[in-house]
Amino acid sequence: MIQAWSVDDVRAAEERAMAQLPDGELMQRAATGLAQVVAARLPDDTSTQPLVVALVGGGNNGGDALWALAHLADLVGEPLDLVAVLTSEHRHEEGLRAARRAEVEIVDATRGGSKGGSKARRRSKALDHAVEALAVADVVLDGVLGIGGRPGLPDLVTELLEAIGADAHVIAVDVPSGVDPMGEIVGGAGVFADETVTFGCAKPVHVLGTASRCGMLTVVDIGLDLGRDHASASAARTAPAAERVDHDDVAALWPVPGPEDDKYSRGVVGVVAGGEVYTGAPLLSVTAAVCAGAGMVRYVGPPGPTQLVRAEVPEAVHGTGRVQAWVVGPGLDAHPHSWDQLGLAQVEAARRALDSELPCLVDAGGLDLLDGPRTHAGARTLLTPHAGELARLLARLDPEASGLDRERVVVEPLRWARRAADLLRATVLLKGSTTYVVPPPASGLAVRAQADAPAWAGTAGSGDVLAGLAGTLLAAGLDPVDAGSLAALVHGVAAHDANPGGPVRALEIAQQVPRTVARLLARAAEVG
Ligand SMILES: NC(=O)C1=CN([C@@H]2O[C@H](COP(=O)(O)OP(=O)(O)OC[C@H]3O[C@@H](n4cnc5c(N)ncnc54)[C@H](O)[C@@H]3O)[C@@H](O)[C@H]2O)[C@@H](O)CC1
Ligand SMILES: Nc1ncnc2c1ncn2[C@@H]1O[C@H](COP(=O)(O)OP(=O)(O)O)[C@@H](O)[C@H]1O
Ligand SMILES: [K+]
């Protein structure tokens, strides 16, 4: 599990550490670790002298970059060209002195030029020089903003970023500048890094939807006590703000049956999905549930899709009966015509599932049946909307979200998923290239974010597969956060495994699940 701590928790941990250490020691640890990574990324070709350019902001992030350049000069035996481009009128004076001592070239990009916006700026010689260096740099260090950064960048920095050559290896110091360190706001101006070197622990930006901006992540140990018990003024044990389940967690979480198990003890999942119009969704959800290893799958639906499921998934049984969890809603028409008896009966079956005390996964049309929290307080509930469905749900139920649209959910996915989780007292799994699993805020549990699927997985019916997969895990007794994040991981990996590097149809994702689960379980045996 990758765990990330909030900026406030990191700052508190830094203070605790600094109280025990000589002045400047933490930054030295950070900068030394950073310099080692940079040294490892220098080109092997020794015919030309490698050029490392650091963009240096006015805070401690800039300090890290300056000290890293200074250490790099010592660390690498070969001659190097080292350039620090200052992007702020504030300076980390100690870092600057160290860089000067190490004969790093200092270019003050803020100097000269006329006042006014960027277009009116008369480019100073220093700025021109910085732009030229960035165009040919082997490695560019982004030390503009760290965890003190707010989303967005000054024009000068944007201009400098645009000058970075296509072949440069861009290393973000701690976080990619311009990107929200808390990972709440996705998109917007900012650095796209090939890799990020962070200090002490991962931050939310590294695991949430902003993770794609960070590239490969290296955590340099600087001796922070996050996640460990510590005796201090703020004695409470800190909890991570965000988590990501990875391949090595599958074995610990996946419900592997033992010799004492039978189909009932493994969990029966009931699927109330589809209708006479949408017949594909039930087939996909039921197939996925069977392939995920449900003890048994019951399908509830009208004759059309029932016939299809009978023909294609002989393992499924039909009609209502005892189950351990329900999947409600894939392909369900929540508002059938008053003359559509079969449609009305299907909505009735869905409502009965929602009114039960059993765990429920609620997807697609099932979401349209929710008017508030489920009647049985404490009944485990996992809602699985995509961004458009979440917008529609909140616009309907939350007066403060009236007019909410898909685009706003995409920019602030966590904010809106949290809101729905709070309003409906349910865990919200928000689907997309990053899938968020957001427990009700009152639970105090960390948000999870998974980004395991290739973009090929974004195909019609793929969500119906995820519903069957996650529903099976709920029926096996997993809580909604584990069921949702594990299902998202396995769904994504199965989409890759089914056809690495190429298109995949939803049914194939479902059919790949047995082998993907076996592979991930075997991997744990190898690692263990
Ligand atoms: N505190 C410590 O002991 C350590 C700090 N470290 C480094 O220090 C960094 C945090 O340093 P700081 O707290 O100085 O913060 P930053 O270096 O992130 O700089 C914040 C400054 O930039 C300004 N700013 C924020 N967003 C802006 C924007 N969008 N446009 C323009 N200006 C903006 C702020 O007003 C503030 O003055 C960490 O990310 C890490 O790199 C590391 O050296 C490890 C040890
Ligand atoms: N760009 C993407 N990259 C990776 N996975 C994606 C991407 N877009 C969508 N997905 C995944 O594909 C599935 C789509 O689900 P959904 O939107 O409900 O489709 P449907 O209703 O057609 O089944 C989700 O699991 C989602 O996380
Ligand atoms: K940075």
Automatic annotation (TrEMBL):
Keywords: ATP-binding, Isomerase, Lyase, Metal-binding, Multifunctional enzyme, NAD, NADP, Nucleotide-binding, Potassium. One of its GO terms (biological process) is nicotinamide nucleotide metabolic process. It holds the Pfam family Carb_kinase. Its cofactor is K(+); Mg(2+). PROSITE patterns: YJEF_C_3 (PS51383), YJEF_N (PS51385). Binds 1 potassium ion per subunit. Residues 246-520 form the YjeF C-terminal domain. Its EC number is 4.2.1.136. CDD domains: YXKO-related. Belongs to the NnrD/CARKD family. In the N-terminal section; belongs to the NnrE/AIBP family. Bifunctional enzyme that catalyzes the epimerization of the S- and R-forms of NAD(P)HX and the dehydration of the S-form of NAD(P)HX at the expense of ADP, which is converted to AMP. This allows the repair of both epimers of NAD(P)HX, a damaged form of NAD(P)H that is a result of enzymatic or heat-dependent hydration. Catalyzes the dehydration of the S-form of NAD(P)HX at the expense of ADP, which is converted to AMP. Together with NAD(P)HX epimerase, which catalyzes the epimerization of the S- and R-forms, the enzyme allows the repair of both epimers of NAD(P)HX, a damaged form of NAD(P)H that is a result of enzymatic or heat-dependent hydration. Homotetramer. This is ADP-dependent (S)-NAD(P)H-hydrate dehydratase.
